[in-house]
Design brief:
By secondary structure, the protein is α/β, with parallel strands linked by helices. The chain folds into 3 domains: about 170 residues, P-loop containing nucleotide triphosphate hydrolases (Rossmann fold), CATH 3.40.50.300; about 220 residues, P-loop containing nucleotide triphosphate hydrolases (Rossmann fold), CATH 3.40.50.300; about 160 residues, Sec63 N-terminal domain-like fold. The protein has an 8-stranded mixed beta sheet, sandwiched between helices. A 7-stranded mixed beta sheet has the order 10-9-17-14-11-13-12, sandwiched between helices. A hairpin with a 4-residue loop joins strand 15 and strand 16.
Length: about 650
C-alpha cells in the first residue's frame, strides 16, 4: 500500500512503540494507520482494542474489519457480544472504560488501543468516559487517537504525556486529499463563493429588512437539486437537523429521477435482496421508501429501524443512490462520502438552545464531500437566509479554527465506587490526572474536588460506603452504570425483586426513556400507574438527597411513555403495531429496548443477587431481545 506522508509519519512513530494522536481531515485515510497496527498485532499474536463513541460506528467497524481479518475480530458493545476474546476487539469507549475499572487484567495481552473520533473527549454526555478510559489505560498499552478536529491537539498530547509518563506524539495533516468548493443558495440563486454572496445579497441587506420576510425569494430545494444534476455534482448527502424534515425533503424531490433503466433495475434488485436478507419485506417503512429508491433517492435517520438504516447504507455505498437526506449522525465515522454535501440550514439545536453550527460540526459534515480516488473536487452547498445569518459568521464557520476540545468532566457514581474500592480516600489523587484539572483554573479545580467530595458524602450517608470499603449496596451500584442510585435504591428496598419480568422491563424502560417537551405528559393505565406509585417515592428521595448535597444533574426520573410498547412487544406484537400506539418512532423504540438489554446484562452479572431474581432477569431478556431488537442477530445478518 502507498501511504501519504502523514500516514508514514504516524506509522513510523507507532513502529517505534510511541503513542500517537493523528489529526487529519475527514476522508484523508486515518483508518489506514489503525489497520497497520491491527495487522501487526495479529501477526505478533498481540491484542488490540478499537473503540468508537457509538454502537452504530462499532458495528460498522466490525463489519469492515471482519471482511479482512475474519476470525480475529470480535465486538463488545453492551447489547452485542461476538467473539469477545478475539485478538482485535471492537468496543464502545464506555464498555472499554467499564472493563478497565471492573477487570483491568482482562487486557493483559493488549498492546494497543485505538480511540476513533477522539474529539468526543468534550462531548457533554460521553466526554468523562473518554477521560477515564485514557487515565486508566494500563501502562503496557500504547494509544492511537484519531480525529478530524482537535485544534488544541498539542495540549491534549501534553495532558496524556503527563498521565502516562511517556511521550504522546502528534501528527497533523491539514491538507485534504480532495479539495472542497463552498457554494451557496440564497434568494433562490446559486453563488459560487462568499464574495459573490456578500456583494449580491449582504450589501443590500437593509433593503431586505424593509420588506416582509415572506417577500424574500425562498431557497427552493428543487432549484439546488436541479443545479447539482445539471452540473454532474451528484451523488449528494443532504444534511437536515430533524428526522421529519429528512423525510419531507425526500418526498418533495420525488419528481426527480436520477437513474437510467439499467441502474434502476440494479438498485431495485439490490434493495429487494437486502430486504429479504434482513427480513424487512413486509415492513411498512421499507415499502414507503420504495418509490424513492426507484429514482435514486433515500433518507436515513435514527428514527428508522437499525436494520433498515443498514440497508440504506449499503444502497448508498453501491453508488446507485444519488441523493440521500440524513441527519448529522451520518457524518460520524461512517465511511460514506459523496461528491457533494448540502446543508439545509446552518443553525441547529444544541441541547438547550438554537445556535449557528459550530465550526467543528460544519467541518465534520462538509468533510463528507469529495471521494478520494474518484473526485477531483468536492462541493459543499449551504442554504442561506441573510436575515438569520451574518456574513462574518458564515465565513468563520467555513474557514475559521474549529473549537478547542474542552473537558466535560462529571464523574459517575459507578466510577467513584470502583475507585473507592481500589484506593479508598486516595481516590481524590485521581482528579489531578484528569484533562479537566489540566485545563482548569485553581478555582475551577477546587469546585470540581468539592463536587467529588459531595458525591462521596452522599454515598457514605446512604450506606454505599462504610469503613473504607464498599458495602453490598455499593458493590451493586458499581455495576449499574448510568442509573446507579435509582436501580440500587429500588433493589435495596426490595421493590426491584418483587417485579415480574414484564414489569422489570417496564421500570427499566421508564428509566432510560428521555422525553421531548411534547412527550412530558402521558396517560397511564392501571397497571402502569400502580408501578409508578410503587417506585416514585424511592426516586424522589434520591433526588432530595442530591439536592441536599448540591449534586447536579440529578439522577434520572422515570417516564413511562413506552410502557404499553413494552407490554405489546412482550406479547409478540410487531414493531409496526407498536409505532401506531407510541409517540416514539421505530428506531427510537429499538434503541430504548436495547438500552434495557444492556442494563439487564449488567444486573445479571452481579454475583450476589438471588437465583430467583437472576431468573427474572433472564426471562426479561427473553421477552425483549428478539426480532428487530436483537442487535447480535442483525449484525450477523449484515455480514
Amino acid at each position: 500500500m502507498i501511504y501519504d506522508y502523514f500516514q508514514k509519519q504516524a506509522i513510523n512513530l507507532t513502529e517505534n512503540g510511541n503513542s500517537v494522536i493523528v489529526c487529519a481531515p475527514t476522508g484523508s485515510g486515518k483508518t489506514a494507520i489503525a489497520e497497520h497496527i491491527i495487522k501487526k498485532c495479529i501477526s505478533q499474536d498481540k491484542g488490540v482494542i478499537y473503540t468508537t463513541p457509538i454502537k452504530t460506528l462499532s458495528n460498522q467497524k466490525f463489519r469492515d474489519f471482519k471482511k479482512n481479518y475474519t476470525n480475529n475480530i470480535g465486538i463488545l458493545t453492551g447489547d452485542i457480544s461476538l467473539t469477545p476474546y478475539a485478538k482485535v476487539l471492537i468496543m464502545t469507549t464506555e464498555i472499554f472504560r467499564n472493563t478497565l475499572l471492573e477487570n483491568p487484567d482482562r487486557f493483559s495481552n493488549i498492546s494497543w488501543v485505538i480511540f476513533d473520533e477522539a474529539h468526543y473527549l468534550d462531548d457533554v454526555e460521553r466526554g468523562t468516559v473518554w477521560e477515564e478510559a485514557i487515565i486508566f489505560c494500563p501502562p503496557q498499552i500504547r494509544i492511537l487517537a484519531l480525529s478530524a478536529t482537535i485544534p488544541n491537539v498539542e495540549q491534549i498530547a501534553q495532558w496524556m504525556t503527563k498521565v502516562h509518563k511517556h511521550n504522546i506524539h502528534t501528527v497533523i495533516e491539514k491538507k485534504r486529499p480532495v479539495p472542497l468548493k463552498h457554494k451557496f443558495i440564497c434568494t433562490n440563486k446559486i453563488f459560487l463563493n462568499t464574495s459573490q454572496l456578500k456583494k449580491s445579497v449582504y450589501t443590500h441587506l437593509n433593503n431586505f429588512k424593509k420588506i416582509k420576510h415572506s417577500q424574500i425569494p425562498a431557497n427552493k430545494v428543487s432549484t439546488l437539486i436541479a443545479h447539482l444534476q445539471k452540473n454532474d455534482e451528484l451523488p449528494a448527502i443532504y444534511f437536515a437537523f430533524s428526522r421529519k424534515r429528512c423525510e419531507e425533503l425526500a418526498l418533495k424531490t420525488a419528481n426527480f429521477n436520477f437513474l437510467n433503466n439499467r441502474e434502476r433495475e440494479k438498485l431495485l434488485n439490490l434493495f429487494k435482496n437486502l430486504l429479504i436478507k434482513f427480513n424487512l419485506e413486509q415492513e411498512p417503512s421499507a415499502n414507503k421508501l420504495l418509490p424513492l429508491i426507484s429514482k435514486g433517492i433515500a433518507y436515513h435517520h435514527a428514527g428508522l429501524l437499525p436494520s433498515l438504516k443498514e440497508v440504506i447504507e449499503q444502497l448508498f455505498t453501491s453508488r446507485l443512490v444519488k441523493l440521500i437526506f440524513t441527519t448529522e449522525t451520518f457524518a460520524l465515522g461512517i465511511n460514506m462520502p459523496a461528491r457533494s454535501v448540502i446543508f439545509d440550514e446552518l443553525r441547529k439545536f444544541y441541547g438547550y438552545y438554537y445556535a449557528n453550527l459550530r465550526c467543528r460540526d460544519y467541518c465534520q459534515m462538509a468533510g463528507r464531500a469529495g471521494r478520494r480516488g474518484i473526485d477531483k473536487q468536492g462541493f459543499v452547498y449551504s442554504r442561506i437566509n441573510p436575515l438569520h445569518l451574518k456574513i462574518n459568521d458564515l465565513q468563520k464557520m467555513i474557514s475559521g479554527q474549529p473549537e478547542p476540545v474542552k473537558s466535560q468532566f462529571n464523574i459517575s457514581y459507578a466510577s467513584l465506587l470502583h475507585l473507592y474500592k481500589k484506593w479508598q480516600q486516595h481516590l481524590y489523587d485521581i482528579y489531578p490526572l484528569t484533562l479537566h484539572y489540566f485545563q482548569s483554573t485553581k478555582k475551577t479545580r477546587k469546585n470540581a474536588l468539592k463536587y467529588i467530595h459531595a458525591k462521596i458524602s452522599l454515598l457514605e450517608k446512604n450506606n454505599y460506603l462504610a469503613n473504607n470499603h464498599l458495602t453490598s449496596k455499593g458493590e451493586f451500584a458499581a455495576q449499574t452504570y448510568g442509573y446507579e442510585l435509582p436501580i440500587t435504591e429500588l433493589f435495596s428496598s426490595g421493590k426491584l425483586e418483587k417485579l415480574s419480568s414484564l414489569n422489570l422491563n417496564i421500570v427499566l424502560c421508564a428509566l432510560v426513556f428521555e422525553p421531548r417537551k411534547k412527550q412530558l405528559h402521558f396517560k397511564l393505565n392501571a397497571n402502569i400507574l400502580k408501578i409508578h406509585h410503587a417506585i416514585m417515592p424511592t426516586i424522589e428521595t434520591i433526588i432530595k438527597e442530591e439536592k441536599k448535597f448540591k449534586i447536579y444533574p440529578f439522577s434520572k426520573k422515570p417516564y413511562f411513555n413506552l410502557a404499553q410498547a413494552v407490554e405489546l412487544w412482550a406479547n409478540g406484537e410487531d414493531i409496526a403495531k407498536i409505532k401506531e400506539i407510541s409517540s416514539v418512532d421505530e428506531g427510537g423504540v429499538v434503541r430504548y429496548f436495547r438500552m434495557i438489554i444492556q442494563i439487564l446484562r449488567q444486573l445479571h452479572k452481579i454475583p450476589f443477587i438471588s437465583p430467583q431474581f437472576k431468573q427474572t432477569i433472564s426471562n426479561s431478556l427473553d421477552m425483549i431481545n428478539h426480532d428487530e431488537v436483537d442487535a447480535e442477530k442483525q449484525l450477523r445478518e449484515g455480514l
